[in-house]
Amino acid sequence: MALLMGIDIGTSSVKALLMDERGRQLGLAQEAYDIRVPAPGYAEQDPDQWWELACRASRAAVARAGVAADRIAAVGLSGQMHGLVALDEDGRPVRPAMIWCDQRSAAQKRKLERILPPEEMGRLVQNPAATGFQLLSLMWLRENEPDVYRRVRAVLLPKDYVRYRLTGRIGTETTDASGTSAFSVAERRWSAELLAKLELDPALFPAVSEPWQIGGTVTPAAAAEAGLSPGTPIVFGGADQAMQAVGNGIVDPGTVSCTIGTGGQLFTPIDSPVYDHELRTHTYIHAVPDRWYLLGASMSAGLSLKWLAGQVLHRGDYAALDELAANVPAGSGDLLFLPYLTGDRTPHMDPSAKGMFFGLALNHSAGHLIRAVLEGVAFSMRDSLEIFKALGVRMDRLIVSGGGARSPLWKTILADVLEADVYTSTMKEQACVGAALVAGVGTGVYESVREACRSVVRIADDPMRPNAAHRGTYARLYEVYKELYHRNRELFPRLNPEADHAE
Q1: pLDDT at residue 416 in the model
Q2: 435: how many CB neighbours lie within 10 A of its CB?
Q3: Catalytic position from the list 240, 276, 322, 383
Q4: In the CATH scheme, what is the homologous superfamily, with its name and number, of domain 302-386+467-497?
Q5: How confident is the model at residue 501 (pLDDT cuts 50, 70, 90)?
Q6: What Å distances lie between residue 59 and 225, 282, 433, CA to CA?
Q7: What are phi and psi of 9, to 5 degrees?
Q8: pLDDT at residue 497 in the model
Q9: In whole numbers, what is the pLDDT of the chain averaged over residues?
Q10: Mean pLDDT of 350-376
Q11: Collapsing DSSP states into helix, strand and coil, what is residue 11?
Q12: Which CATH number fits domain 3-243: 3.30.420.40, 3.30.300.180, 3.40.640.10, 2.60.40.1180?
């Protein structure tokens, strides 16, 4: 029986999972790392640390499975989206990677919007450009570190750097290229017109393949570091959102995925590259032929709870936090939370947006604060869902995954706020599973991504159902939640004028 490995380069850790072709998980390893914040609004990570820890996780997963490395038929990759890994002529990173939650390129965003207003961005790439996206980070690098920029010969996304280290070959694939803001999702190519308008060299951007294609094989040097067998095929894999969708079996329209990790994402497959003409959401290429997907994103989902737990309440037992919040009635005693700790993506696309508790009163306890954070993140997911509905997306089933799926209370709140039954995948580490399944497709273990999902993915049959008694409370508070941003939009930039008005 074929063995497959999926490696996921996440925001907080790298994971390596070894499984057989039926989906039985044999070995899992995880290595954590931090986000470096050298200045307010910055978010960086070391690509060589990704590589070092990916190797360590790979070796550990193989050891825990108790199998020989030469039994692995293929390896697939998944990774955090949008970031900039810039390489010099020797293939070495010229600086730390700027990752998706980096906010330093607000001035470049304004400059881009003067050159290419929303209707032009929609025509060229069907997507907005947001701070932390590769395009704007590259513009920032050119303007703020010109000596470093002149050394750049190639730009990669995070998981593509790890594949490059495994194979010695530079490249990317459609799902991750979609999230750079420089790639035409409708035409499946880098936008030459956009790059020309911004005076960016198209030679910096790598060749683009499909997720299931083989991107190279493990070199002898990489095999020695990663504990793999030389010559093992490395399949491109894809962006973490596409890979978690495959790992949850979400490949066709009608199913919506809600991921509550560091950030939060609402995801649904679509059969044509439709996009929101106000560019409040994203339209990207899926890891299935002739499929795209809509994505709404919150910058601080699980991150909001982690912030509250660690920096305010100084409590690390999340089950205990859940219990405290469960004792608070729906609506948190009319306390609202805006989860904009690192700016907002959907629907406002505003890096200046700030987090907020609104409605604090003397009767509010730690439990109220916790529940308000859970509800605020759920409201941010509803913002995305409302746009999806306006674009004609149907939702036959909602599947929740990520760390938030481990919280029964959070799933209950999502069911109430989104007014939908909430299902949970029985699969663990869905992004790793998706990467492994795509690796199996690329090497003939499965005929297609759909066949791979049918063979492996299972969804629990006991959903969390919305409580009709809470509908009125959440409908009322959601209207206030939406107004909070609009009433405070002009105030947010005044809190940090140097960052928000620098040109």
Answers
A1: 97
A2: 38
A3: 240
A4: ATPase, nucleotide binding domain (3.30.420.40)
A5: very low
A6: 8, 36, 18
A7: -95, 95
A8: 65
A9: 94
A10: 96
A11: coil
A12: 3.30.420.40
